[in-house]
Amino acid sequence: MTDNSLYGLIGLSNKLSEVESGLYLDNLPDISLTLLENLTDKSDNEIETLFTKIEDRAIKKFRTLFINAINKCHKIHDIAICECLIESNYEVFGISLWYLLGAELMFERYNSSRLNKYTTIDRTKAKDLNTSLMELFTDELTVAVNSIDVNDNECSDEIAEENDLVSTAYVIP
Known about the structure:
Blueprint: E1 10-11, E2 23-24, H1 33-38, H2 44-74, H3 79-88, H4 94-110, H5 123-147, H6 156-162
Parallel strand pairs: 1-2
Helix pairs in contact: 2-3, 2-4, 2-5, 4-5
């Protein structure tokens, strides 16, 4: 099960290439490249490794939370259909994933063993930011899920089959 289209949707602003979404983790409030540097050995390779770890964790969490949200909103239970919906609608998840990556970075910050006086955000502020970013994520995920037209997308046939739906197309002569 893959959500390949979500990988690379959010980037870091220090990279020479732009991401399609235009969303960069370090453009969120109180998140900077300095914070990422202070959680690593400050080399580009270490920062990229940390970002990849956070991105992977966030996408796995996103998948689980998306399945829960789509089940509540559209009563879709089949994981393969959920995967299809993520892949075919990944553009609408940019903002919610952006906030979730920020929350995961704050989780990394307040659980990090690399605490020192140079870290730009203390533990209390990191926990508060994590909470705020998770709330923003939840709101944005709800908006994104509600914006998916389950009757008119690449996954519609699978959804109709799962729910034993019969669709009717009316044609005006």
